[in-house]
Amino acid sequence: MKNTQRQLSSSFMKFLEDKNRDLEAVFAYMDANRDGRISAEELKKSFKTLGEQMSDEEAEAAVKLSDIDGDGMLDFHEFAQLIKGNDEFSEEEKKRKIMEAFRMYIADGEDSITPESLKMMLMKLGESRTTDDCKVMIQAFDNNADGVLSFDEFALMML
């Protein structure tokens, strides 16, 4: 992983020589579909454009290196962390990112992830699961056996 990070930092140094460019411009360049996230495929294509070759495995490893919310993509903050060469987010940043992810899985007016809200989110992500499947998934991290995931339980799962 450190080797992949060094390769990324080295390759981007060429691209970032113009001191007037900032990470947002680089991020926007690499975010080909403009969805606000960089996929492993977008990362690989960007490297090819820059004259660098990157295998599928290297691109996946680079994304996983800084993908704190586990969505398989890099948002701007995760991308910036990767480029800066620091594999650790501050504790405050980690908590903020986990809270963002947690909020995606809870239904309006709720304060925990229920089997129903998990099922709805998975459907939005293109993964069809039954409510019973979601109950089993929640059980694996439901420390107090109340049938739902609190933020603290979700955070433990993410870390």
TrEMBL record:
Source taxon at top rank: Eukaryota
InterPro entries the record matches: Centrin_CML-like, EF_Hand_1_Ca_BS, EF_hand_dom
Record keywords: Calcium, Metal-binding, Repeat
GO MF, any single term: calcium ion binding
Cited Pfam families: EF-hand_7
Domain EF-hand: start-end pairs: 18-53, 54-89, 129-159
Biological function: Potential calcium sensor that binds calcium in vitro.
Designated name of the protein: EF-hand domain
Phylogenetic lineage: Eukaryota, Viridiplantae, Streptophyta, Embryophyta, Tracheophyta
